[in-house]
Amino acid sequence: MSETVSFGYDEVSPEEKTAKVGAVFSSVAAKYDVMNDAMSAGMHRLWKDKFVRRVKPQPGEQILDMAGGTGDIAFRMAAHGATITVSDINQEMLDVGIERAMDKGLDDLVWSRQNAETLTFPDRFFDGYTIAFGIRNVTRIDAALAEAYRVLKHGGRFYCLEFSTTQWPGFKEIYDFYSHKLVPRIGEAIAGDADSYRYLIESIRRFPPMPEFEKMIRTAGFVNTRVEPILGGLVAIHSGWKI
Asked: Would you list the domain boundaries of the chain?
């Protein structure tokens, strides 16, 4: 039997998933940031602020922001003086980020189209690797984690912000109803695309639980791994170190 991977609730070939995910983000790129505000009632901004505080970017550091798309994480880290390379597999997302950077007068960011599974950067090049709300869309997560480990210097740190499954009783049921029933409708109303947002919600449900994903990070070679749940695990910050 040929290998299959999840695309939302469907099983597809790895090549088909890569193409389908690309189509999703090409479709939503222009309204991506507006939809983030609408879907999370603006809370994604607080999550990202907390994430960057955990990363602790420093002047002189080289940090790779993978799946950096529209620049939300990169802009926050650049404010601390680090040199940020923003990478994404989707050029439309990068184009939105570049335009936003120009509007903000930020001209010292590096923008590079990259596949997280096959980075073109040299070994041991970056002090930090961040990925926010992107790892679940990667076709082969283990390959992306291996690449993150490869491009980090010894002593480098890995940080991932990703949706998970909240463990709070009651809230879980409310969120399940909201995400499955209402988010696609919001996507249709704001972005004219219900199907893409239906996939994005389904991809959260198919993502490994927090302990399982932490194990994958350790398997890639990282040590001192940690998981910090937010809202009972609705969102989680995962971290690890290369030593």
From this structure: 5-241
- Rounded to 5 degrees, φ, ψ at 234 are -55, -40
Q: Are 204 and 118 in contact (CB under 8 A)?
A: no
Q: What is the pLDDT of residues 166-191, one digit of tens each?
A: 888 887 788 777 777 888 788 788 77
The predicted model scores a pTM of 0.89
- Furthest-apart CA pair in the chain: how many Å? 52
Q: Are 52 and 72 in contact (CB under 8 A)?
A: no
* Residues forming beta bridges with residue 239, ordered by sequence position: 159, 226
Mean pLDDT confidence for 8-35: 80
Q: Domain 5-241 - what CATH class?
A: alpha beta
Q: From start to end of the chain, where are the E strands? A: 5-7, 10-12, 62-66, 83-88, 110-113, 126-132, 152-163, 223-230, 235-241
